[in-house]
Structures are given as C-alpha cells and as structure tokens.
Amino acid sequence: MAASNLKCRECKAEYPLEALYVCERCFGPLEVAYDHSRLTDGGVGELRRRIQGGPQNIWRYADFLPLAGGPPGPSGRLASRVGLPAGCTPLVRADRLAQRLGLNEVWVKNDAANPTHSFKDRVVAVAAARARELGYQTIACASTGNLANSVAAHGAALGLESYVFIPADLEEQKVLATGVYGTRLVAVKGNYDDVNRLCTELSAEREWAFVNINLRPYYAEGSKTLAFEIAEQLGWELPDRCVVPIASGSLFTKVAKGFAEWRELGLVSGELPRMSGAQAEGCNPVASAYAAGHDVCRPVKPNTIAKSLAIGNPADGPYALEEARRSGGSIDAVSDEEIRQGIALLAQTTGIFTETAGGVTTAVLAKLAERGEIDPAERVVLVITGEGLKTLDAVRGTFETHTIEPSVEQFETQVESALQTAAEGNVLAGNGALVSTGARS
Amino acid sequence: MAVTVKIPTQLRTAAEGASEAQLEGATVQEVLDGLFERFGELRTRISDDDGGLRRFVNVYLSGEDIRFLDGLQTPVSDGAELTILPAVAGG
Predict the structure, then answer these.
(1) Which residues of A touch B90 (CB under 8 A)?
(2) Which one of A33, A391, B22, B43 has the fewest beta carbons within 10 angstroms of its own beta carbon?
(3) What is the ipTM of this complex?
(4) 0.80 exceeded by pTM
C-alpha cells in the first residue's frame, strides 16, 4: 500500500502501521504517512482514469487510504462493494441559497446521503476495514451520535461485534438509530468529553478497535475522501472556499489535507481553498481561540443544541487553528437560534434537511456572506455532514400546521384565508415571505 | 496526602511498566513533581519546556479535567485519583 508508516505530527517520530495513536516520546497524535512517489508514474491522466474507473464509493480513492490489502472485498467485480460502502454523495449546485446570500456560486456537499446519514460512514469504513486487517473482532467508539450510528451499522455489516458509548442525554433519534443494529449500547452519565475519557481508559484495557481512539490515525484519513469527491465532482478543480463544521477539528483538517495531497500530485491545480470553520456558540473552544489569536484551545463545558459538535476539549483544535490561518480562512460560532435559522435556510432554498451541525455550517456561511468576507466571485462549498431527521427537536414548533376536517369549505376558510392574511401581513412588513407563494397558487 | 496517579499505557515504558503510582503532595503540581522524581523520563514526555503540560496531555482529578479547576495548582485531597491521558479526537 501507499501508506508507509505512522508518524508523530509533533516530533516526527515514526511507528509501524498498527493500532497506535499517541507518540510515546511527546504524546503528540500519530498520523499516517504515505509514499505517493510512484502513483503518477503513468501520468496524471492515467491516475485520474483509474480513480474514475473505481467503484462508486470511497474505495475509488484506495490509493490514498491506509489499507494494506487495498479496497476490502473478495475479488473482481465484487471488490470493494462489501460491508457498508460510504461516499460518492451528491454535490448540489445551490443557486437559490447563493442568491439569498448575495453570492455567485455555492455548492452543497450533502453527506447526509451516506448509509447511516452522516459523513461518519467515511471514517468508520476505513477504520473498520483496517481493524479487520489488524485482526480485531470488536469495534467500538465514543460518540456524540452520528459515529454511534455508523459504528453499530458497520459492525453489523461486517459481522464484527461492537460497543458504542454515548452521552446519556443524546437525542432519541440517534439512540434509536444505533440500537437497531444490534450493538452493545452504553449510555454514560456525563458529556461527550466524559465518555471520551472513559473510552480512552478502556481502550488500554480491552482488545477492541476503538475507531476514534486507538484506530484514530486510520479513521481520520477517511475524511480526506470528502475533499477528493468535491474536487472530482467539480471536474478536477478546487473550490475557492470550504465551510466545514468543527467538533474535534479532525474533519476540518483532513478535508484540507485531502485537497493538499491531490494538488501536490498534480491531480488538481490552483490555489488551495480557504478553510472556514463553523462551531456553535454553546461549544466554541476553537472559534474563541481563533478570535483571541491563541494557538491552543481552552476546554469548555458544552451547552448547545448542536450535540454532534459538542466536544469541549477538541484534540485537533490546534491544527484546525493553524489550517484556518494558513489558508486565509476563518472560524466562527453561531447561536442556537442562528442554527435553527440555518437549518430552515438550507431546507427552504435547497430542499436539503440537515441536522443541527449543518445548521451551524449554513449559519456560518450566511454570517460570512453578511460580513462581506466572501468575494462574490468565489466558488464556495458548504459541507453538510448529517441528516435532519436525527435532530427533529431543532425544528419542532418552528412552523404552523393547519389541521382541518376533510372539507373544501374548511380548507378555504381556515387555510387559504389564513395564508392570505399572513401573506398580506408580510407584504406590509416588507419581508419577502416564505408563505407568500403558497397563498396564491 | 496520599494520591494515586494512573499512568497511561503509552507512558509505562518510562515508568518501569507501572500502571499506577502512590505519591504524596498537596497540589497536582507537587504530585507530578513526585512522579517525575520517581520516574525521571516522564518529565520530558508530558511537560513542556516551561514546566507546563504539553498540549496533548490531559490530567483529570477524580474525573474532572484540571483545566476546569486550578490547573497544576489544584489542591488534591487524601485518597484522590489523578489520571493522565492523551487527548483524543472525537465524533
């Protein structure tokens, strides 16, 4: 495989490609290092064609992922279609959203279209495949919800046992969509950082592959496939800016790494995109460090509706800060109310219903546009990491349902007249109402 | 004050294989100083040049991150448990 070893991101010490994640010398995080020198031997065109000829999932990028045996699967046509293949999610041009924000070109990368409806299937597919290569029988995770769904589902698909640890106050939808896969679900009385601490201790005591702890170097690499897909779907071009949510900071930094790897190989050209990070005000350790000019993050106790981003002690925070500054990007935080508005804005301009994390990302894009930070000529990609059906509480009570008897008269008197009145009210108030079109047709 | 310090697997090679150590001290700093006296190599592994903790080192006093308390100056009581763990990315 192209992966050559694990390397400490801080002190550069090298380690073999095993279930290791921390440098013994300096405690820094380990990352997968690659030797890509032979990949373009046949020219960039051939490498592009090989990628395009690959399966319609992340394994088309197997050359850039840390698996010894290449894509998982038996052989031939069935290769890399086993398990729960992730990726190849739609990149949708969002002209109505762009228009609303006064921008020219906005694309939505809709990663809710993964098997368990979040980007986590990318990272879990890689970590679970690597866990199998390393001989593990059990996969596990500490999760804010989306990872829980994904680990449970991938365990089921691959026939691996799984343990999933979640904070006890998680959204019911995420709990139900985990337990259904037959995992061993453990609800921990505490927040995500407590769950994470418990699992870090357990990972030393059990022979399990904790996908985001001892398998983390492999897991994190899966996020690069988001960048690869965006570039490929744009016709082998780079966007000018990506707006990406930040929880631990891993996704944010790995998306940037994906673009950088491809640019270095000549698969894409031009400037690397500005990386704009998005957090919730109720859990903003990276955004506040960015604003204060710090290069490390002070942990916080999360209190936000964006639970999938509620990591108060973000391990990759320092690298997210570096990346935002290096790329000329930004990191912003938005309030819970802005998150709800972000969910509605995306839904009502693109038809895509995202969970709270996508509300955070959309609201941050809106904020950047409002501040005039985005050049109208920029090609912007908004990364939507998860599905709205998982966080229904966020939209409950935000719109009106008209309940009537099955009678035309009631429809006319109670629905049409109410909508008419509302539309007139909106015209009087001077806002381009969302209900106005419905009242006329 | 007798305090138990739990040592993560990644540091046990520098602690003669010990998974925990009993130490005396009135603050987290004093306990860690005692730990470094016993296992000299641990100091460079988890402390930075200024004597603080490296940025990827988390220390918990009975489950609470000491950065939410008084950091290295946090007082420790008799029988307390101090856990050293690496920072881990999440999801």
Answers:
(1) 142-144, 147, 192, 196, 212, 247-248, 250, 311, 314-315
(2) B22
(3) 0.85
(4) yes
